């Protein structure tokens, strides 16, 4: 049975109730969840599950087909049990801020240099992004950081829309990202639009407005070969 992904339409949902649909060892599948499973460069959430007579820490969350599997420490509820989930909000919100920071920066790098992103990874306290740009100078790094911060502070809204495949593929911004790699069978595409900055097909959680990101600081850069560059960032405030 597939799991309803509550975080996909409401990234600010911290607690929810659900039903255990399967148990295997120390892992449970729920009918719905606000816990984000590892994917798209964003690490899984942590938190707690509570049920009648017990509670446990959620130590790992992963997606398997349409199901979200929560690995628990400290006990396991029975199939059919009603559970209350609580997401570790400090960690999740930090990941949301870093995720929106990376998308914004990817929009800036494309606008300034026409460079496309090849990968990214977020952590609660830092993030990194890889992109194809043979020539990355100190001046360019400074320009990327300055332009990103200029845009973030303008307070651009971030909206999430779920579009039929054909409609998503018609958005010019999405063509340069990995939308063409989305498997044929997937008919609904979730699009994260940082209005006026960046638009991507993406499954992750984001803040609602770029002002929530704070200031981006480039903390390092690295040559990854074949024109690939890596930028490391941290957020101030
Ligand atoms: Zn993303």
Commentary on this structure:
With 237 residues, the protein is of the alpha+beta class. The chain has 5 helices and 15 strands. It has a 6-stranded antiparallel beta barrel with strand order 2-3-7-6-5-8. Strand 14 and strand 15 form a beta hairpin. Helix 2 (89-113) packs across helix 3 (138-153). The longest helix has 25 residues, at 89-113. The chain is globular. The chain binds zinc ion. The site of zinc ion has 5 residues, from helix 2. The site of zinc ion (ZN) has 5 residues, from helix 2.
List the helices and strands and how they pair.
Elements lengths: L3 E2 H4 L5 E10 L2 E4 L1 E2 L13 E5 L2 E11 L2 E7 L8 E6 L1 H25 L3 E6 L4 E6 L5 H16 L4 E7 H5 L2 H4 L12 E7 L3 E4 L13 E11 L2 E9 L1
Parallel strand pairs: 1-4
Antiparallel strand pairs: 2-3, 2-8, 3-7, 5-6, 5-8, 6-7, 9-10, 10-15, 11-12, 12-13, 14-15
Helix pairs in contact: 2-3
This protein binds zinc ion (ZN).
The site of zinc ion (ZN) has 5 residues, from helix 2.
């Amino acid at each position: 049975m597939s799991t309803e992904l509550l975080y996909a339409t409401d990234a600010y949902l911290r607690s929810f109730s659900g039903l255990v649909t399967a148990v295997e060892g120390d892992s449970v599948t729920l009918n719905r969840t606000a816990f984000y499973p590892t994917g798209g460069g964003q690490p899984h959430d942590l938190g707690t599950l509570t049920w009648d007579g017990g509670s446990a820490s959620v130590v790992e969350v992963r997606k398997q087909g349409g199901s979200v599997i929560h690995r628990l420490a400290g006990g396991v509820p029975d199939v059919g049990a009603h559970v209350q989930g609580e997401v570790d909000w400090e960690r999740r919100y930090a990941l949301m801020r870093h995720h929106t920071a990376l998308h914004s920066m990817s929009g800036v790098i494309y606008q300034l240099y026409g460079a496309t992103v090849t990968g990214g990874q977020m952590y609660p306290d830092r993030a990194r992004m890889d992109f194809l740009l043979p020539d990355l100078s100190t001046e360019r790094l400074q320009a990327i950081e300055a332009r990103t911060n200029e845009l973030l502070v303008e307070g651009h809204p971030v909206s999430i829309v779920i579009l039929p495949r054909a409609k998503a593929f018609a958005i010019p911004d999405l063509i340069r990202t990995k939308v063409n790699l989305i498997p044929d069978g997937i008919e609904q595409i979730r699009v994260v639009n940082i209005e006026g900055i960046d638009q991507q097909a993406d499954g992750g959680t984001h803040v609602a407005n770029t002002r929530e990101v704070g200031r981006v600081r480039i903390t390092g850069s690295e040559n990854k070969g074949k024109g690939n560059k890596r930028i490391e960032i941290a957020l101030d405030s």
